[in-house]
Amino acid sequence: MEMEKKKKIGEVGVDDIVKAGALSREEAKQLHSILQEAIAGASSDPRKVWQHLVAKRVLKPWHPHGLHQLFYYSVYAHWDPSNSGPPPYWFPSLYQSKLTNLGRAMEIHCPKLLGTSYKDPINSFSLFQKFSVQHPEAYWSIVLKELSVLFHEPPRCILDTSNQSRIGGAWLPGAVMNIAECCLQPSSHPRKDDYSVAVIWKDEGDNSTVNRMTLKELREQVMLVANALDATFEKGDAIAIDMPMTVHAVIIYLAIVLAGYVVVSIADSFVAKEIAIRLRVSNAKGIFTQDFIPRGGRKFPLYSRVVEANPLKAIVLPATGDALGVHLRMQDLSWRDFLSHVSCLPR
């Protein structure tokens, strides 16, 4: 359902409800009655109307998605996203808002930046957004600190607008950084020390175990792969990744960036011809991939598709367990062999 359909929530009838979801006509009549009662005397502000419908629990989790869409888009029928942004769906409580990254930062910095005008993260959100536009140096200095962004060479300024030919200006001119390093280093942020959980995942086909990796464990794994990259490739080489989004894919991606190589991301759904095009365009010197893609209790070949694209070198991970389920070309390496001659040394 598109926003352009202008029927207001008060105009939604029983036929609309039946058409939108798998409800009988009698169920639709009951829901329509509940809806009319909920919106009677409601505010003209669509945000408050939607908030009221949510608070009254007019819609249930088991109602069809089309019904949720019908009510949502009808409430916001005359909402102008070009001026007001996307229509809000969820409204956090004041307590919840203060637990968000932005809310926490506002509570710390806004009393000083906005003075007595600051109330709380919800009521002062628009005021702080306006401040961020008018004072980018102050705002982005706070954001960079909150995100623990580390510079090898600090920027000359946050935003340089002196060159009128550069639309939007130049951000962080002169800065030198490695974003993977920023991700992996502990910081003064209370939620980012060596023992903070950095990655949570479940392996395909394992419905019981939820795995967790701390920041320290992630950093050690990334450094190990980065050292192995240095022993195999030349600085600046483009290295492709054609894998499902596994924990190993995350480690490999961060390692390529940390070690100063160029990441080439390739969707694991691509056929060999598409893989070959990306390898050729990027001039990739190697590719990380898996033997198979496990999905729904079946195994789908991936390494064979990659080989058909004829990469210079492939590093192949087993989809499950420690042993590969395919035979490798002469120039290719198993994940185990790739890592076997390096150690996790500081970089």
TrEMBL record:
- Domain named AMP-dependent synthetase/ligase is located at 198-296
* InterPro entries in the record: ACAS_N, AMP-dep_synth/lig_dom, ANL_N_sf
Q: Which domain of life is it from?
A: Eukaryota
Against Pfam families, the record matches this protein to: ACAS_N, AMP-binding
Bilayer-crossing residues are 250-271
Q: Which UniProt key words apply to this protein?
A: Membrane, Transmembrane, Transmembrane helix
To which protein family does this belong?
Belongs to the ATP-dependent AMP-binding enzyme family.
Q: What is this protein called?
A: Putative acyl-activating enzyme 18isoform X1
